[in-house]
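Note to self: the last two entries modelled the partners one at a time, which told us nothing about the interface. This time every component goes in together.
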Amino acid sequence: MKRTVSVLIAGVLLLVGAAAASAAEPIKIGLNLEMTGAVAAYGQQGYEGIQVLQKMMKLEALGRPVEFVLVDNKSDRVESANAAQRLIQRDRVVAIIGPMISGSMLAAGPVAEQANVPIIGPSTTNPLTTQGRQYVFRACFIDPFQGQIAARFAYEQLGVRRAALLVDVAQDYAVGLGNFFAREFTKLGGQVVATQYLKTGDQDFSAQLTGIRAANPELLYMPNYYTEIALAAVQARRLGLNVPILAGDGADAPELIQIGGSAVEGLMHTGFYHEKAFTNPLARKYVETFRQVTGKDPNAFGALTADSVLIVLDAIERAGSAEPAAIARAMRETNNLEVTTGSVTIQGGDAIKPVVIRKLVNGQWQYLATVNP
Amino acid sequence: MAEETTGLAAVRPAGRALSPWTRRLLTFAALALFAVAIAYMEGPNFSPYYRRILNVALIYVVAAVSYNLVNGIAGQFSLGPNGFMAIGGFFTTLMMLPVARKEQVFFLQPLIWPLSEFSLPEVLQGALSRLIPGSAAIAFLSMSLGFLGALVLAGVMAALGGLVVGIPSLRLRGDYLAIATFGFGEIIFVLANNLISVTNGPLGIRDIPEYANLWWTGGAAVFTLWAVQNLVNSTYGRALKAIREDEIAAETMGINVFAHKLLAFVVSAFFAGVAGGLLAALLTTISPSLFTFMMTFNLLIIIVLGGLGSTTGAAVTAVVYAVLQEALRAVEAPMRLGPIHIPGVPGMRMVVFSLLLIFLMLFYRRGLFGRSEFTWQAAWETAHRLGAALGGLFQRGTGRPAGEVRRPRGR
Amino acid sequence: MTADVVVQQLLNGISLGGLYSLLAIGYTMVYGILRLINFAHGDVFMVGAYTAFYLVGIFRLPWWIAAPGAALFTALVGVTIDRAAYRPLRNEPRISALITAVGVSFFIENLGLVMLGGRPKGMPVPGVMARAYSVGPFRIPGVTLWVPVLTVALVLLLLVLVYRTRIGTAMRALSRDIETTRLMGVDVDRVISYTFALGSALAAAGGIMWSFQFPQVNPLMGIYPGWKAFTAAVVGGIGNIVGAMIGGFLIGIVEIMTVGLLPHLSGYRDAFVFGLLIFFLLVRPTGILGEPLKEKV
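The predicted structure of the combined assembly is written out below.
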């Protein structure tokens, strides 16, 4: 009798222990983000998105909790590759989220590919990052698509026939987008009357803008990041260049309005994100939680990073395993998954999702249109 | 490498002098040990993460040792190695990239003509398979020879760049030279961003065959050390040091100052180009932003920390620097210890490094090695003194008077 | 390119050149005395702009207090840098001081990135500066009008200080021969501090006006203006205050006009400026107004 009791107790203890062990063993996901360096703002915004998601819902897969391992990549290619390798070998993560920018993904992607660990770039818009890869993904649309939509919007909706471009020559994102816009716009029958270049870090664009003004365009397309857009807008207005401005998703940051002030009023841009474009409850809840937690309006980079997390977790559930190769296989079959920016389908590693166009009116973003792929 | 007799050895001979044969033997033993270590580290049991850091460290060795030749040995303050690394990196890339990939990667603007039809390994493979038809080793051989050829050619291109930059700017001295070389570095960066049909613009190029492993980086580091150290110990090297100490006096002694400076500059540019090529082949991607002034700043910290003018100092600090940068990562990342959240300070790394540079210049200008080199003789003496000190400690335990213990250490 | 575009570009160039001038004078003054390129000068300029930003944006001070306040604080920063990092190296080889200067520059930038954050902040611009005037076919923004005027006024004030006061005389004496000046009973360190204070205050003035023209501040904003202004100092003849002013305007105009005349090469803008720098270094290293350098054996 005594012995039976002790065996029973031991058995119960064992069971409890096993249950506790399996519940305590978390699924590790690596974050390879730009916390410092030239585009630190994007990495920081992305991390904020994940923190909001954590507050909003319990993040788990297969009944196991999720643990994030954050590593800064200094917005640098060498460090991005180092960081990916560190996350895979040292921290044994099952998937990596980030880097945010395409150039760094070109360095981190092959590392993950070689180790058969899935890596997903929340906002890596360049087509080259996923081309020919089995383990590299993106949660956003690609530059050619966005450039085409922008060109069509300008030509068809705004009725513009003469466009001028001001492109940041030191950013692959800006050069790519500008290029695809120009191709599509001329194909449609429009005319690019002036293409001028600037370089990240420069602040005076008066010469370029004077040249653009002399070419007499109907629209100024600036596919740059928000600081350069805001500075160029201010100088354009001072120089009396009052044509409408169109930008890409790089414009999506509160700093655009803070720096640009009245000069960016009326600015339009193509992006991932507007709360009015959402229909699913998850997206609405994310917007609400974001406002509650940070006191600010949500931004594209945070939302896309949160989406990346949801894509990975969904894949783990569907794969029924937290094994990296299985996760990657399942990620490739993501279909109509509800995420914070609407819904997403993955084809060949690329997210297929609509482009949202917004306009700044009285300091508030107004929803203009959604263009489906 | 072991022939330098100035420095520690000349100051105080302790223990017996090592014969040239012993020193040579020690060098070979060290090289053999290094090769065995690489063989182990390239094996399956070694973490790819550590392997990557070591690769980066060894590439830093190549770049820092060659940079030190101009700044430390010849005493000419150049700020332009990033430009030469960029030239070497892009040239290696364009030589190595398979023709089919070139068409895919250059999707904004096609690559300019002769380069678009040309890939060194493919050319070699074609030539070799005509010579020895049907051999399986041909792919490996053509790849290896192709990479070696690409690296050498990249070094030559960078050296040509060094010639173009050096001939006008080496007439300048001190600050003016620094500014001119910085200006050239910036011009190369601007060109690399704008010449989309050569560099693919700011996005850069992907799918460079991943060919830089520890054999290549380690081999390049050893070769660079050997070549630079031989140059330093030759009459050219002595002339360079004379120029560093007093340019006018050196000129009076009949040294062709300009020719010597140019030699150092061109040799340095060659190895910087090789380092750039290795970095491209390690990352498998390249872009102008890899080679900004930050790269030069990193190298400057390395050679100053190592002791301006010490080749082996630059090599040792290069490894320490690369490892330290990765090790300090843990400190600046946010940490979550259960319920406690330590926010960490991203970017603190660079603050620490720039402070370190200032403090070193103020209080410890000599750096780790000063102008001395690592020599077997010096190592032998250090070991000798260490042994004596340890022996003293050991003997204290056996009841020797304490006064005698301090003597060997305090001398 | 029609005539009115040329004139408009010229106005843009003068406006930008005025900003370079204010920054170039700091480089020239320090170099004239210490033969040191103060790499950190562009970052001092950033400190000036940030101080003004905080005084106006956060503490809501009016501009007539904030601007002198920022200049004062920046002068203090400049003097501190000299005391802490440059003075101990006065008798060392110049390369040591130069490397230290690079280190100071990176230290200020990275400390700024850590303490102030990398995201840019919008600068509040006073109405006079933000307004733009239409004159015939030309648009003249308030900044374009005021910057050159203020620049010339500040340079005149500086010239009075240098040529009409005792300390100015001491500064000029130092730039000739430090040792002799010391023997004449001049407190050399005090005069050098004074030089750093003046140069840094002018950098602050430049920084504030810069952020009126380009209404944002960020920790890395001083890097390129710093290099361009240094170029201006060399082109004008380093060590010469009027030369720095002329060099500043020249660089500004050249930079703008190359973009204006060769619009398809606007991406190469910085290459033109650095090319001009190298050209001057090689052909006339003493610049437009500089005196020939004496070789010291």
